[in-house]
Amino acid sequence: MVAALLSSTAIAQAEDVEVLHWWTSGGEAAALNVLKEDLKSKSIGWIDMPVAGGGGEAAMTTLRARVTAGNPPTAVQMLGYDIQDWAAEGALGNLDAVASAEGWDGVVPTALQAFSKYDGHWIAAPVNVHSTNWVWISKPALDATGGKAPESWDELVAVLDKMQANGITALAHGGQAWQEATVFDGVALSLGADFYKAAFVDLDPAALGGEKMAEAFNRLIKLRSYVDANFSGRDWNLASAMVINGEAGMQMMGDWAKGEFLKAGKKPGVDFVCIRFPGTQGAVTFNSDQFAMFGVEGEAKQSAQAAMASSIMAPTFQSAFNVVKGSVPARTDVPNADFDDCGKKGMADLAEANGAGTLLGSMAHGHANRAAVKNAIYDVVTAAFNGQYGDGAAAAKALADAVEAAK
Ligand code: GAL
Predict the structure, then answer these.
(1) Core-most of 33, 103, 131, 281, by most CB within 10 Å?
(2) In this structure, which residue's CA is closest to atom 3 in ligand 1?
(3) Side-chain-facing half-sphere of 77: CA atoms under 13 Å
(4) What is the whole-number distance in angstroms between the Cα of residue 172 and the centre of ligand 1?
(5) Whole-number mean pLDDT of the chain?
(6) What would the pLDDT profile of 76-124 be if each residue is shown by its tens digit?
(7) What pLDDT band is residue 236 in, cutting at 50, 70 and 90?
(8) Count of alpha carbons within 13 angstroms of residue 85, beta-carbon side
């Protein structure tokens, strides 16, 4: 009797998945719930391992500690090059059987497959495609400036000036390195997709240290002048809340910010406006959240991983989840019918950028280069935002040097 009980408990536990993630804000938790409920309906148990901290740096530190202790979670939310690094260490499981049974090769965009596969094998299931070159603007605050959304850098500065003159914080921002890097994705892209690629993807020293980068830093330094005095250390979702509450005019943030607006009951086009970072329409800096499956022993655990991956990849789930999360599906065959206007625009922009060769990995979210280089860029971008260089040219030189040392 006891033995029977024990073994059935063991089976029940073996079919749970323990999921490490950093989706702890209101909008993120709402999206995560869509996943939890979906798995629950398939009798896959969920053991939650949340590690708060936007962008996932803290989660990655916890993951390293867990793996070092010989106790990896079943599935881990992960970005870009981090997935490839864990695969190179031999830490990840293999999803080839479910991927080939369900034809993932034919429906997942190639730009994503570059991260979901290692050495030709599927190692992660992509749940979404986010992009970072967005600006989220309070509609009432924009209307108070004349109502026209900015389409160029000069128009952006003019709108920010008017918002400031109207007595609100023009730019809602949280002073954390990854948030400054996220803003810098858009700023750099606004100086050209070729430039962004040369600098952040190809790590070309001439682009990293040249005139366009100096201009990008000058723009970043200018943006700092629109931020309130209490920005230091503020979480990104609290910056979103400032726009939602009418305390601030806009936030430059990836489309996970939309999840916060929706969670607060706000409607695109009515309460807020979504635009591409002025000057970047036609190009997209993307990041895709994927669930990497860690190598686990035992058939039951492995089949729970496969079942979780299969659930994540189902077209209906991809629609339901991404509608809430603010992102767009990680498959090309999901209808846009259930998405709001910002989501529809996100899907159309992604397809356009993919066709035009202007779909580029986000530097800020680990899709342009490995962590060592990313962190070196973070340091310089944050220092520049906080006024540690005399001007953009000095920051660009520091950036080229830092990247060269980290390569
Ligand atoms: C990103 C992640 C998003 C969102 C954001 C803020 O790196 O891809 O899903 O959660 O961090 O936490």
Answers:
(1) 131
(2) 256
(3) 28
(4) 17
(5) 95
(6) 999 999 999 999 999 999 999 999 999 999 999 999 999 999 999 999 9
(7) very high
(8) 14
Cβ neighbours of 356 (radius 10 Å):
12
Helix (H) or strand (E) holding 401: helix 392-406
Pocket lining: 23 vs ligand 1, CB cutoff 6 Å: yes
pLDDT digits (tens, 9 = 90+) for 272-282: 999 999 999 99
Structure-token pair, residue 208: 């990293």
pLDDT (0 to 100) of residue 108: 98
Cβ contacts of 299 within 8 Å, gap of 6 or more: none
pLDDT reading at 2 higher than 60: no
Residue 188, SS3 per DSSP: helix
Q: Supply the pLDDT for residue 15.
A: 79
CB atoms within 10 A of CB 351: 15
The torsion angles phi and psi of 302, rounded to 5 degrees, stand at -65, -35
Residue nearest atom 2 of ligand 1, based on CA coordinates:
55
What's the rounded mean pLDDT across residues 332-344? 98
The structure's pTM equals 0.96
E strand or H helix that includes residue 29: helix 26-41
State which ligand 1 atom lies nearest to the alpha carbon of 28.
Answer: 10
DSSP state for residue 194 in the 8-state scheme: H
**Rounded Cα distance, 390 and 48, in Å:** 46
Q: Which domains does the chain have, with CATH numbers?
A: 2-130+287-339 (3.40.190.10), 131-285+347-406 (3.40.190.10)
